[in-house]
Design goal:
This protein has about 160 residues and is α+β, with helices and mostly antiparallel strands. It contains 4 helices and 8 strands. Strands 1, 2, 3, 4, 5, 6, 7 and 8 form an 8-stranded antiparallel β-sheet that branches.
Length: about 160
């Protein structure tokens, strides 16, 4: 099985937009790794996330704003030889992004970003109450470094 690196930005963005969620790697308050699935939006080299206004994730990211965000799509079990365990692989594509979290506090900007997040999941127009916007923490991660790979390709797939 082969692994190839994908460098075409449009192809990478297609993979990101296919994903229903991402996983966010954070350093916790004790300096240990912490990974959590989160809903997201991606636009123009920036990933937007949201959470409650306080709590452990917010405390962790405030102390350690550098994060690693992973997207993965297409989980298909493939093999070269049915009876040889080492020939099995999971055919998938993943994107790994690194950057620093910046919290967005401006109410107008928060509404714009919430619209962007909602467009990731639905075509419906959505409204937000003032207390809801005030009480949501918006995370902005401008991507500093991004890699993408396709795994589990048979020679005939390349």
């Amino acid at each position: 099985m082969k692994t190839i690196t994908i460098t075409n930005l449009q192809e990478i963005e297609k993979i990101i937009h296919k994903c229903p969620y991402c996983t966010v790697g954070i350093i916790d308050l004790k300096g240990e790794p912490y990974v959590v699935p989160m809903n997201f939006a991606y636009k123009d080299g920036t990933i937007y996330l949201h959470s409650g206004p306080e709590g452990s994730k917010v405390e962790m990211v405030t102390l350690h704003p550098q994060v690693c965000i992973t997207f993965c799509e297409g989980h298909e079990l493939v093999y070269m030889h049915k009876q040889i365990a080492c020939s099995y692989s999971m055919k998938s594509r993943s994107v790994i992004c690194r950057g620093k979290v910046k919290f967005i506090e401006d109410m107008t900007e928060k509404r714009r970003i919430l619209d962007t997040i909602m467009k990731q999941y639905t075509e419906n127009e959505c409204g937000y109450s003032e207390p809801a916007v005030r009480n949501v923490k918006i995370w902005e991660v401008k991507i500093e470094h991004m890699t993408c790979k396709s795994f589990g390709l048979r020679p005939s797939d390349i």
